[in-house]
Design brief:
- The chain is α/β, with parallel strands linked by helices and 94 residues long.
- The chain has one domain: Transcription Regulator spoIIAA.
- It has three helices and six strands, in the order E-E-E-H-E-E-H-E-H.
- It has a four-stranded mixed beta sheet, with helices on one face.
- It is globular.
Length: 94
């Protein structure tokens, strides 16, 4: 799910982010960013049960989109297996 409110684009993927789903999700994110031109973007992992390296690429590519707009980008609610994947990538240090 992707929502936009008061300058913030909120991305809430559900289930698994893998090579089958990451491309479709990125296309939806890119379209929303291009349409809304948000100042802030938040990717909320609270409903993600599994991810692989495709999720790492998704986070990096989304950050680059926001950097091009001089906007902010944050990842929230990492836990379980997705947190382990992001820690292994050194994208997060918590």
């Amino acid at each position: 799910m992707i929502t936009y409110d008061s300058g913030t684009l909120r991305i809430i993927p559900e289930g698994e982010i893998d090579h089958h789903t990451a491309g479709k999700l990125y296309n939806a994110i890119r379209e929303a960013v291009t349409h809304e031109l948000p100042r802030n973007c938040v990717m909320d992992f609270s409903a993600v049960s599994f991810c692989d390296s495709s999720a790492i690429a998704l986070v990096v590519r989304t950050k680059r989109l926001m950097d091009a707009l001089s906007g902010s980008f944050n990842v929230e609610n990492l836990g379980g297996q997705p947190l382990k994947v992001m820690r292994a990538s050194r994208l997060v240090t918590c």
